[in-house]
Specification:
498 residues, 5-stranded parallel β-sheet
């Protein structure tokens, strides 16, 4: 139960004389309540679903329409698309306190009780019938559908122990132990992964939605429940596997499709909002925008990669977990090298691969290559794409020429920023290009080292440099094409052989 409301009416008589009059809540359904409160929020121009990003012009308008139409609805989408979070936020549009008959398992309306126990109690005590209250969070019930869910879990069952203790006949309505759906009466019942629910349980939901009839062990109970039923499902299961019975599907008012962020900027905002970055630590870690974008691009590229199963999807949890691991690896390195402040580098993104590989469902081609190899290639592609955005127009020829002249730079993982910068300074023109990444030439060594390493990684991603365990970054070997041997012609006129 939620917070107690001690200043509210405690009996049915007091309730009749209060703002919770019969005219106000006696016949108002939970769908009417949601509609009324949503209309008020729209009129006041309040944010309806704060924290839900990238759905402002797609999902949320359809969701609002379903609520204003008082419809049951289903959210169709792949994993990690905020479906469950959206459903839990429906509590924002429920009243702060809702009166019900004290002790009732299904939170009966004091003015119109539907269970036999509450009707008998109201008949005996009249205006002295005790009243309790539900907070918004108490009125949301969520269940993950699995094949082992039974009708007793969802609807209820006869409780022989209760019958024996109270001296009731086994077929008496008072011996019923109610399931999750009746206990969500006057609230929102959310069922995740609807197609995984057995067909006979779906029939039970259909009866509740349409008729209000529940049969428990052959004993018919008329329960006109007051519910908003909402569901989630994977589109692949919902459409291809066909596990939702047609009568139930037909009575779901709206089918709303969710999606992954379309823009990288939206994805970065979600990741920044959901990831655990504001942590207490002896090390001050500042994530530069280009590293955050590399992490986000990982998810976008994986969703497009033919080696990754598109039917499974790539959850938004991938960049969230990866960014957290990037920061943790940065912390670990800084503590080992004795630095008080640190900036993540591309090598920290590679160190976060365990947060990536477990979230990729691979196709056959990807399985042959291996999850770790696929993830490493995705990091390289991501670095290359972000590199092109920030440094696509930069003149990095002097940097490449320095390596082609025989230069090489090896950067160990546990190299502190000052030592790393000392190794990078001889690379001609390298530090002059960090301005393109928003880093000043006089910035601290941690920022400069991270930016300089990113430039080298970008050149490696575009195959203008190579990288090996022995040498580190070095020149990409040139392909020497055979030419015709004609000593009488100067080199620029020698005919190249195909």
């Amino acid at each position: 139960m939620g917070e107690k409301h001690w200043d509210l009416p405690r009996t049915l008589g007091e309730l009749r004389r209060s703002s919770f009059s019969e005219d106000k809540i006696g016949s108002r359904s939970v769908r009417d309540e949601l509609r009324q409160n949503l209309l008020g929020a729209l009129e006041r121009r309040e944010p309806l679903f704060p924290g839900i990003v990238a759905y402002e012009d797609t999902v949320l308008p359809q969701l609002v329409n379903a609520l204003l139409s008082r419809q049951n609805f289903i959210l169709l989408g792949l994993r990690g698309q905020a479906k469950s979070r959206i459903l839990r936020m429906l509590c924002r549009f429920l009243d702060e306190a809702l009166p019900y008959v004290a002790g009732c398992e299904i939170h009966d309306n004091p003015y119109r009780p539907i269970c036999r126990g509450c009707r008998e109690l109201a008949g005996e005590r009249g205006d002295e019938t005790p009243i309790e209250y539900l907070a918004p969070g108490d009125r949301y019930v969520e269940k993950l559908a699995t094949p082992d869910v039974t009708i007793a879990d969802m609807i209820g069952d006869i409780d022989p122990i209760r019958a024996a203790r109270q001296g009731h006949d086994i077929s008496d309505e008072l011996t019923i132990h109610y399931g999750l759906v009746p206990r969500a009466n006057r609230g929102v019942f959310a069922l995740n992964e609807l197609p995984d629910l057995a067909g006979k349980i779906q029939v039970g939901l259909f009866n509740i939605m349409q008729e209000g009839d529940v049969q428990i062990k052959g004993y018919p109970v008329r329960l006109p429940l007051d519910l908003l039923l909402v569901f989630t499902a994977n589109p692949e299961d919902y459409t291809a596997r066909g596990k939702i019975i047609t009568p139930l599907k037909d009575r779901i008012g709206s089918e709303i499709r969710t999606h992954y962020p379309v823009r990288v900027e939206d994805g970065m905002e979600i990741t920044r909002q959901e990831s655990w970055t504001g942590r207490q630590s002896p090390v001050s870690v500042e994530v530069p925008p280009y590293i955050a974008e590399v992490v986000e691009q990982l998810a976008f590229l994986a969703r497009e990669d033919k080696r990754v199963d598109k039917r499974s999807g790539v959850s938004q949890r991938l960049p969230i977990s990866a960014l957290e691991n990037v920061i943790s690896n940065t912390e670990q390195r800084a503590l080992r090298t004795g630095e008080k402040s640190a900036v993540p580098r591309v090598l920290d993104v590679y160190a976060a691969l365990p947060a990536v590989t477990g979230k990729l469902e691979l196709e056959y081609e990807g399985e042959l290559k291996g999850g770790d190899s696929v993830a490493r290639e995705l990091v390289r592609m991501s670095v290359g794409k972000v590199f092109s955005k920030y440094l696509g127009g930069a003149n990095l020829t002097p940097v490449v020429e320095w390596f082609e002249a025989g230069g090489a730079v090896k950067l160990e993982e546990l190299c502190d920023s000052a030592a790393m910068l000392h190794r990078l300074k001889p690379v001609r023109s390298l530090l002059a290009n960090v301005r393109a990444l928003g880093v000043a030439r006089d910035a601290d060594s941690a920022r400069l080292a991270s930016a300089a390493e990113f430039i080298l990684e970008g050149l490696y991603a575009h195959k203008r440099l190579t990288r090996s365990e022995e040498l580190g970054f070095s020149a990409e070997p040139r392909r020497h094409e055979p030419v015709s041997v004609d000593e009488q012609q100067p080199p620029q006129y020698r005919r190249r052989l195909n």
